[in-house]
């Protein structure tokens, strides 16, 4: 038996969009179940995101602390952001986010993992990159606003982040998945065996 997620689409009898926001919307589908019954399914429609686990030569991860109003917490996170336009190349978006949020650039990029963040209620797909060979970006710093104006930056050893994740002290999805995937990759075939930065991403197809 092969353990692998597979695409599948059940019949939708009707669909509507009761709410449209600035970046996301809510969709209601009438979905036919295997026994023939029809049920309502409400979910958030999301453009997709990228996140960057930026690892420096001292084995520290670049993290930032930002207020997240829905959960009423300041969370430690890795740089991340939305895919601004449909079909946007995720590597280009990841480079942009690393520059805008940390004013850092990277020489070596790999795909660390791809995830659906909350597939029971949202179609958001996130590609998490591993970025190495870090250096200060050139040019002016990106002008921040709103929650980002209060953002803190730090570089934290990988082992300390793993400890925080397992202790229930760190909760951001991309940080948790990214850090534990990093450790798993090292214990397996190594970081250089990770997928290339332009690897296909069926959840959010793009042009290279």
UniProtKB/TrEMBL annotation:
UniProt keyword annotations, A-Z: Hydrolase
CDD domains linked: NUDIX_ADPRase_Rv1700 (cd24158)
Source organism, top-level taxon: Bacteria
GO terms for MF: hydrolase activity
Coiled-coil positions: none
Nudix hydrolase domain boundaries: 44-178
Record-linked InterPro entries: NUDIX_hydrolase-like_dom_sf (IPR015797), NUDIX_hydrolase_dom (IPR000086)
PANTHER family, A to Z: ADP-RIBOSE PYROPHOSPHATASE, UDP/ADP-SUGAR PYROPHOSPHATASE
Protein name: NUDIX hydrolase
Organism of derivation: Streptomyces viridosporus T7A
